[in-house]
Design brief:
The protein has one domain. Helix content is 72%, strand content 0%. The protein contains twelve helices and no strands.
């Protein structure tokens, strides 16, 4: 083994926390490397995001031109342009669509091998998804933002706390989005085929997360209900509003705190559902 430079990851009982961090980090790196191999798909995805960025940006700018004071729902032209182009980049970072690995493994029975591993499925899939998100930041996020800077006036944050709050908000959005997608995929434990819930997620998440238009264009009572009663605005709307400084600092921090609550709750729900599904599989003899 020493001659070929191979190494085996061992877990020491005396240092379980360090071993857990090492294992989690290795899973994150594996997720990054996995998506780094699909270079052509990355380029094609970035190009698609840029094309739709132009379409969305001109539509929202047309809305602003017809609004009173050119400020629909309190957004000026620069804030709307920033909302669109950063949102196009974040779409690949949060990974709202396209992940059906868990549902496919449940359908084929390959999930049984995941249950034999020392790392719980929720933790292993979360680590791999964080690696995917890191790859998205370095590849799919920067392209649309740079194009937006070239063709449109974008907002420059004026408050010192905006940038760290935005980074934290993006991280929470990635975790929250993973929790939603895991729960959608986990319906395959009971339905055997999760394509129906996945289709509903695809149709509804983009609208209710604020991808197609800012949720603040909706009636205020509906916007508040969506923000408090669902985790969806925290997937895109919250980090974008934080970046464009749509709200005062206190409200910015409050929205991120609400986002953190939803992220923790979603991961807890994913863990509970996974444990219940494992008991169901034992009852069925799977």
């Amino acid at each position: 083994m020493d001659r070929i430079g191979a190494s085996v990851l061992t877990i020491s009982p005396g240092r379980p926390f360090r071993a857990s961090l090492t294992t989690f980090g290795a899973l994150v790196w594996s997720g990054f490397r996995r998506y780094a191999t699909y270079r052509q798909a990355t380029i094609a995805g970035s190009f698609t995001n840029i094309v739709f960025g132009f379409l969305r940006c001109y539509v929202l700018l047309a809305v602003a031109a017809g609004a009173v004071g050119n400020r629909p729902a309190g957004y000026d032209v620069e804030q709307l342009a920033t909302y669109v182009w950063v949102g196009q980049g974040l779409l690949a970072v949060t990974g709202m669509w396209g992940w059906a690995e868990l549902a496919d493994r449940i359908r084929t029975g390959d999930i049984a091998s995941d249950l034999l591993r020392p790392v719980p499925p929720v933790v292993s899939y979360l680590a791999a998804d964080l690696g995917r998100a890191l790859h998205g930041v370095l590849t799919r996020f920067l392209g649309p933002v740079l194009v937006g800077l070239l063709f449109f006036p974008l907002v420059t944050p004026q408050r010192w706390q905006t940038v760290p709050l935005f980074v934290l908000s993006v991280l929470l959005a990635v975790v929250g989005c993973f929790g939603c997608r895991f729960l959608i995929n986990a319906t395959a434990y009971w339905l055997q085929d999760a394509r129906g819930p996945q289709m509903l997620w695809t149709l509804g998440s983009g609208v209710l997360a604020g991808l197609y238009f800012p949720l603040r264009l909706l009636p205020e009572w509906l916007t508040v209900t969506l923000w408090v009663a669902t985790p969806l605005p925290g997937l895109l709307q919250t980090p974008l509003d934080v970046l464009v400084e749509r709200d005062p600092p206190a409200l910015q921090a409050g929205l991120v705190a609400l986002q953190a609550i939803w992220a923790v709750l979603l991961i807890w729900l994913a863990t509970v559902v996974q444990r219940r599904a494992e008991r169901k599989l034992v009852v069925q003899g799977g």
